[in-house]
């Protein structure tokens, strides 16, 4: 894949994850369930932390692509190796764990991972974006 196309993809993915993170931080409900955001607000959920991690990963990937496009080779190698380390150590394993554990528990018992009381707090489009 050409670097400019890859840079555009990474930019769009970064903007999307940034937008989803921003939208989640703006979720306010007057009548939210008492047990949902009692301690730590939304930051206690691994799904939210995974979204932040994905935004960071795509931001670093976009930066690495831009640096490769403008030919700053010394700095680009450092950012590229940081991106690869971030992906192999954090982004892929955490995303895989979150996805597999969420859908396994959701299939077993929905109330364990996504209570029905959250349906009125988090909009449907934002739930699917996560």
Automatic annotation (TrEMBL):
Subcellular location: Endomembrane system
Entry membrane topology: Multi-pass membrane protein
Catalytically driven reaction(s): 13-(9Z-hexadecenoyloxy)-octadecanoate + H2O = 13-hydroxy-octadecanoate + (9Z)-hexadecenoate + H(+); 9-(9Z-octadecenoyloxy)-octadecanoate + H2O = 9-hydroxy-octadecanoate + (9Z)-octadecenoate + H(+); 12-octadecanoyloxy-octadecanoate + H2O = 12-hydroxyoctadecanoate + octadecanoate + H(+); 12-(9Z-hexadecenoyloxy)-octadecanoate + H2O = 12-hydroxyoctadecanoate + (9Z)-hexadecenoate + H(+)
Keywords: Membrane, Transmembrane, Transmembrane helix
Pfam families assigned: Far-17a_AIG1
Membrane-spanning segments: 7-25, 45-64, 85-106
GO cellular component, one term: endomembrane system
Principal subcellular localization: membrane
Domain of life where this protein originates: Eukaryota
Family note: Belongs to the AIG1 family.
Protein name in UniProt: Androgen-dependent TFPI-regulating protein
Taxonomic path: Eukaryota, Metazoa, Chordata, Craniata, Vertebrata
């Amino acid at each position: 894949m050409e670097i400019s196309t890859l840079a555009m993809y990474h930019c769009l993915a970064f903007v999307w994850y940034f937008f989803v993170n921003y939208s989640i931080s703006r979720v306010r409900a007057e009548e939210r369930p008492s047990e949902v955001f009692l301690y730590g607000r939304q930051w206690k959920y691994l799904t939210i932390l995974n979204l932040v991690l994905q935004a960071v990963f795509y931001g670093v990937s976009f930066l690495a692509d831009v640096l490769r496009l403008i030919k700053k080779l010394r700095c680009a190698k450092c950012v590229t190796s940081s991106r690869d380390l971030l992906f192999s150590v954090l982004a892929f394993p955490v995303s895989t764990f979150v996805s597999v554990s969420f859908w396994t528990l959701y299939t077993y018992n929905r109330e364990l991972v996504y209570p029905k009381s959250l349906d009125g707090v988090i909009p449907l489009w934002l739930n699917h974006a996560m």
